[in-house]
Design a protein that fits this description.
heterodimer; A: mainly beta; Protocatechuate 3,4-Dioxygenase, subunit A; 8-stranded mixed beta sheet; 2 helices; globular; B: 251 residues; mainly beta; 4% helix
Amino acid sequence: MAQALTRLKESPSQTAGPYVHIGLTPNFGGIGGVYPTDLGSTMITDKTKGERIGLRIRVLDGTGTPLRDALIEIWQADANGFYNSPTDLRGDADPDFQGWGRQPTDMETGICTFQTIKPGRVPFGDGRLMAPHISLWIVARGINIGLNTRLYFSDEAKANAEDPILARIEHKVRVPTLIAERQGDNYIFDVHLQGEKETVFFDS
Amino acid sequence: MPVDAGSNRRPETGAFFQRDRSWHPPALTPDYKTSVLRSPQKALLAFDNTASEITGPVFGHAMLGELDADLIHNFAKSGESAIGERIIVYGRVLDERGVGVPGALLEFWQANAGGRYRHKKDGYLAPLDPNFGGCGRTITDADGGYAFRTVKPGPYPWPNGPNDWRPSHIHFSVFGHGFAQRLITQMYFEGDPLIWRCPIVGGIRDKAAVEALIAVLDMQSTAPMDALAYKFDIVLRGRRSTLFENRPEGN
């Protein structure tokens, strides 16, 4: 017998369930007066630096039906590629941009809308620059453990072509599942949970 | 922004331990029917954390309202309180190294004492309690400790099998220091016979993993003549130390 490794196990995940709004977006869910606003509902102010963009995200199940009870959180760098986090020691992030947002999917259309700024490029571990991207975390009824993926931008073809994470995707036909299509100031992004167009989800 | 103001501890910047996905429920758990069409089927793309996963936002105690951690009163009319078995839920947020996680945002939600959620999608027969909303939140202290007050949620039937019931449970959303630590789970109550009959719990394959989600009654932490107490610790992914960092030249 060798010595024991005294490590704990991560708490197992359980689904967010159909009533996730009560806990995470209570004002949206019809429970007013407990919190002044829903956390993460507003990402930018007049002072935030960077190009204003909108995200229109849907999450589609194996039949192509949009989920109307999902919740999405996003996390991104500021316009200069810095994260507003004590763990980012590279420089000072824009103090007027937290970089984190949370939105439920619309209960009728299934569309999840974020108003944010386009992030700058963040270095990969070896110093190469990753393409601009936004990290996504998706939870819902029927999803046993939150799904991680990224949203990249269709108008960043050159940066996308040299992105070290996109380069790790073995089947290149799946790369477009991570690229949001620009329409005016908005990016349209469909997350497919299953099927031929299944989005590349991450284990990282 | 410092993680815990007043501490001179340097922020940790290591990557997180890889997730043991055999310990978590898999995406597809057919006995929980909704998972069938909502479970990814292709292999996940594995890679070591980048800055995008290692970093995460900070939530300050200043955002908390006075009654945020008191579900008995935070939705109740003045002078009234929620109906049900009054309980204190407390514990620590730790990481896999056993280190307390300070500054972790915890958000919780639950059904009322009759098993009914304040949500337009919930049509269960049990009535709403006019004094119970069902949501609360807090931020862990310097040792990772937390506590809140609520009523014990009731079990309820749900449309899955012809006669499936959820055990009494409280949903927890946990935000540690990195976006890759993000976790949602549920807390169950010691001794509840419905735990082992639940198709959602049953998605977890290891009995010890299920037991990690069962809060234990703690008679030493009760508020006498007021509330029972349950202890529930939560474990987030641990961070690798950066003692011997591989840095490419020029960095």
